[in-house]
Amino acid sequence: MADKKVGGAGGVTRRALLKGAGAAGAAAALAGSVEALAQETDGGGAGGAVAGPGPVRMTLSVNGKARKIVAPPRRTLLDVLRSDLDLTGAKKACDRGTCGACTIWLDGKPVYACMVLAIEAIGHEITTIEGLGTPDALHPVQAAFGKHDALQCGFCTPGFVMTTAWAVEKHGKRLDRQLVMAETSGNLCRCGTYSHVIAAALDAAGAAADAAPDEREGR
Ligand code: FES
Ligand code: FES
């Protein structure tokens, strides 16, 4: 059967119109329907309300700003940060709570973002490496990592910096080699930059220089 034209003699066929509309509008329609179906939640399950399994509207506090997202409750905070909010500093390596590449702060304490659901983070302050310092005003730990060459491929570095910055703030000048090793034991570096990380941590903390290891160690 011949396709009917729409829009007059110079118009397009009904098939082309529908195909065009489908291609152009599919994403918007999908996003619209997800938004329309989304359930509002405060994350607390107030009144025994169950969130999900469909998409849920959430507001997260990330680096001091309220960020609104629509995501299913099963979505991890790491995926939301990286894919929904375009904050790709936290890295997805093991995705199993083992390597620490995804470390962020939740209410000022380091956590594996791959082990936290975004919905669980509602009402908590999330800090990512992007919120720790800026290129013009680095956090002392970020600056110390550069000074002490505490990275090679850099994949573990954002997570290491987040944990180390927390340890420096927690211990200050009391930080020593053993404490750095203990506090960063949940972060793995496949390139083996541990001795440089320790040196950077002690420097950032203003700890005794003679506590710093030989920087060639481990290389
Ligand atoms: S990616 Fe989260 S701990 Fe490895
Ligand atoms: S610098 Fe390569 S994994 Fe740590």
Give an overview in words.
The protein is an alpha/beta fold. The protein has 3 domains: about 10-35, no CATH class; about 40-45 and about 55-130, Ubiquitin-like (UB roll) (Roll); about 140-210, DNA polymerase, domain 1, CATH 1.10.150. The chain is about 35% helix and about 15% strand. The protein is built from 6 helices and 8 strands, in the order E-E-H-E-E-E-H-E-E-E-H-H-H-H. It has helices at about 15-35, 75-85, 140-145, 155-170, 175-185, 195-205; strands at about 5, 10-15, 40, 55-60, 65-70, 105, 110, 125. Residues about 1-15, about 15-25 and about 215-219 have low confidence and may be disordered. Bound molecules: FE2/S2 (inorganic) cluster (2 copies). One FE2/S2 (inorganic) cluster (FES) binds near residues 95, 98, 99 and 114.
- Total discrete domains: 3
Gyration radius, rounded: 24 Å
Largest sheet: 6 strands, mixed
* Portion in beta strands: 5-15%
Note the topology.
Blueprint: E1 5-6, E2 12-13, H1 14-37, E3 39-40, E4 56-62, E5 65-71, H2 77-84, E6 103-106, E7 109-112, E8 125-127, H3 140-147, H4 157-171, H5 177-183, H6 194-205
Bound molecules: FE2/S2 (inorganic) cluster (2 copies).
Observed structural traits:
two-stranded antiparallel ribbon; Ubiquitin-like (UB roll); 14% strand; DNA polymerase, domain 1; binds FE2/S2 (inorganic) cluster; 219 residues; six-stranded mixed beta sheet; alpha/beta; disordered N terminus
Question: What does this entry show, briefly?
Answer:
This protein is α/β, with parallel strands linked by helices and 219 residues long. The chain is built from six helices and eight strands; from the N terminus they run E-E-H-E-E-E-H-E-E-E-H-H-H-H. It has helices spanning 14-37, 77-84, 140-147, 157-171, 177-183, 194-205; strands spanning 5-6, 12-13, 39-40, 56-62, 65-71, 103-106, 109-112, 125-127.
